[in-house]
Amino acid sequence: MKDGQYDHPAYILTTFLPPSLRPAHLAIRALNLELARIPDTSSTPAVLSMRYQFWRTTITSTFALSPVKQPVAVLLSSVLQQRDPKPALTPSRFLRLISTREKHATNTPYPTLDSLEQYAENTYSTLSYLTLSALPLHSVTADHIASHIGKAAGIVAILRGVPLLAFPSPPNHHSNDPQSLSSGQQQQRRQQGGAVTLPLDVMAECGLREEDVLRYGAQAEGLKDAVFRVATRASDHLITARQMLKNVQGGADVGHAFEHEGEREDVSAVEDDGTTSKSERQKME
């Protein structure tokens, strides 16, 4: 992530973070990038599994302050040894991220829109939880807002990936825009086989078939309706997060319960029971 080549949004976000948080943010996002790239660099299912297991072992050893000689592990280890501020990171959320990435490594379609949302919760929302823990900021309210933002980001990431997975680039071809290819090149991509990761329930409701997407691309019947429905769910989460943040900054209640509160990690320094202190509101501002 030196120049943001692979995760430009996370790289740009670094400039808005407190200097003390930047090493943790970079370590968290670099790990996520390593996990996301495993399917593209693994030749067999066995190799795929071994690489995810490597990261499980690496996280465990890093939290034992015995990191392997790997850049992400070394950076994360240095973050864990910080004293001011001392991060409240624990391995469980990292391991959840690894397991979720592995579960979806083969680009199997999501059965429902809710299952796609759960994927976003276990990946993009988890990345936000980890960043908050690195501050450290212990707040149910902050986690609640981060959950909605992460779900929106995760759903949008899947939508952005639809053309890339449906029409995967051949080796040594760097164009990610199917429309920029000739008809012959598009046909070559289709013959290589692609995947459509839109939720199956949404596809059924919109009359969208995977083979139509692979054959007709953006012109497939029902594709625009399916993408709109999925994007609407992401938009709803973003609208909710903005309203919640406005409520918190105004000293009001967030407006609804946090459905993932029972999944939060146990931390000894939790300061609230669903409310947010003045100092926490200032951090979120």
Characterize the overall form.
globular
Task: Indicate the proportion of strand residues.
Answer: under 5%
Gap from first CA to last CA: 27 Å
* SSE pattern: HHHHHHHHHHHH
- Poorly predicted runs: 172-191, 266-281
Helix-residue proportion: 55-70%
> How would you state the average pLDDT, rounded?
85
**Beta strands, count:** 0
* Global Rg: 20 Å
Structural class: mainly alpha
Main beta-sheet annotation = none
- Give the count of helical stretches: 12
Name the features.
285 residues, mainly alpha, 12 helices, globular
Give a concise summary.
The protein is mainly α and 285 residues long. It contains 12 helices and no strands.
Walk me through what this model shows.
It is a single chain. The protein has 285 residues and is an all-alpha fold. It is 60% helix and 0% strand. It has twelve helices and no strands. The chain has helices at residues 8-14, 22-37, 45-63, 71-80, 91-103, 113-134, 140-166, 183-192, 200-205, 210-216, 223-249, 278-284. It is globular and about 55 Å long. The chain starts with 7 loop residues before the first helix and ends with a helix.
